[in-house]
Write a structure and sequence with these properties.
Strand order of the largest sheet: 7-6-15-13-14-12-10-11
Helix content: 25-40%
Radius of gyration: 25 Å
Strand content: 15-25%
Number of helices: 13
Shape: globular
Distance between the termini: 71 Å
Largest sheet: 8 strands, mixed
């Protein structure tokens, strides 16, 4: 084949590929949501003369169209996976999309302590403590990220988690009791493909927290009753699974049933009135993010009542999504637990609540109070906790 014919063939093939992809993108229905990235996808921009001739920037039609085309590109997920496989197994990259795979565990890399977030988090925790918790027993626990247990073995660089946790402990030591969870956790407490921890592995964490807060461990509060592990799914694809875009091991989601857990009554106040919800929401468990089965996912204000409690004792937990799976276990020692998620405190009618107003909606008098946050949230908290 002559060079001229070869060039013509290459041009024709390239033109067919470009034309085919363009035609496919026009015919194919736009996607609303990216499961892999857990975000809304861009829509076709509204075209106007002023937008077309606007200076290049985030609001120009051309920039909006570029974002739209990137989000709606045909076979986008397949191309992402091809790129990830090539980068990892052919080029030998240790990280892909800022994610790293070690011993089947996917972690998101964070290189630095975010000073603004540390200050932001401490300001809000201290504000609530100073204004509402003078008569309460207050406790603070930080859940380390998976990187804490993997980075040394994997050889990638992360910030110093010990320094990070110790800074929060030292800054709050005069106001609350710090409960160190680091020795109670290990990499096997976390899902392979998700940021969260596994509920069925948390009895050691539960025991430490309950013993610190109530003087009795988990077994003493449950009369040595053994809870049962129930399987929800053995094909859980966590938030990191599709973001990494590599063929990796899937997870199983288990949840604890039996004894007092089956009789717990949970209510959500995000609408302004108490709406009954399931402690384990099987509908959410079969949805896009099965971890949301625990207390129906992200909620601003929830209460859980334990009619089998042996003591009339109450707990308030300021928490992120990690608390959704842990708190049902803590209910063994409490007649009522109130969960507050400051990240979502402005949803629905609850949008009128801020840390400065939380005392109108939550009674702290005589209650134990636990601040329970993951290091990932505390290190990326600016804008997470409302003013």
């Amino acid at each position: 084949m002559s060079d001229k014919v070869r060039n013509i063939v290459n041009i024709v093939v390239a033109a067919l590929i470009i034309f085919g992809l363009s035609l496919f993108s026009l015919i194919d229905e736009d996607k609303d949501w990216s499961y892999s990235e857990r975000r809304d996808l861009a829509k076709f921009p509204e075209v106007s003369l002023s937008g077309i001739f606007a200076p290049t920037g985030k609001t120009s039609v051309m920039n909006e169209f570029e974002t739209y085309f990137q989000d709606q590109f045909p076979m986008r997920e397949s191309f992402r996976q091809i790129n990830s496989v090539g980068s990892t197994y052919l080029l030998g990259k240790k990280e892909n999309n800022n994610l790293c795979l070690t011993d089947d565990y996917i972690t998101k890399l964070e290189y630095n302590i975010n000073e603004d977030s540390v200050e932001w988090s401490l300001n809000r925790i201290n504000y609530i403590t100073d204004n509402y918790l003078a008569d309460s027993s207050v406790y603070f626990a930080i859940i380390p990220d998976k990187n804490y247990y993997l980075s040394g073995k994997a050889g990638y660089i992360t910030y110093d988690y010990d320094e990070f946790i110790d800074r929060f402990r030292d800054s709050t030591k005069d106001k609350m009791t710090f409960v160190d969870l680091r020795d109670q956790l290990g990499i096997k407490n976390y899902y392979y493909t998700d940021t969260h921890w596994k509920q069925e592995t948390l009895l050691g964490v539960t025991d430490l927290l309950l013993y610190t807060m109530t003087g009795k461990g988990f077994a003493e509060n449950t009369d040595n009753t053994i809870l049962c592990e129930t399987l929800l799914t053995d094909s859980f694809e966590g938030v990191y699974y599709s973001q990494l875009a590599l063929p990796v091991k899937k997870d199983s989601i288990m949840y604890m049933t039996g004894h007092y857990v089956d009789d717990l009554k949970a209510y959500c106040y995000d609408s302004g009135t108490p709406d009954r919800i399931d402690v384990y929401d099987k509908v959410k468990g079969s949805g896009e993010d099965p971890y949301q089965m625990f207390l129906t996912g992200s909620r601003a204000l929830i209460t859980i009542e334990n009619p089998n409690a042996t003591e009339d004792r109450e707990l308030v937990v300021f928490r992120d999504s990690f608390g959704s799976s842990l708190v049902p276990l803590l209910c063994s020692a409490y007649s009522k637990i109130t969960l507050v998620d400051l990240r979502y405190i402005q949803s629905g009618l609850i949008r009128y609540i801020s840390p400065a107003m939380i005392g109108r909606f939550v009674d702290f008098e005589g209650r134990d109070v636990l601040f329970l946050y993951s290091s990932q949230i505390l290190n990326n908290s600016v804008g997470q906790f409302n003013n």
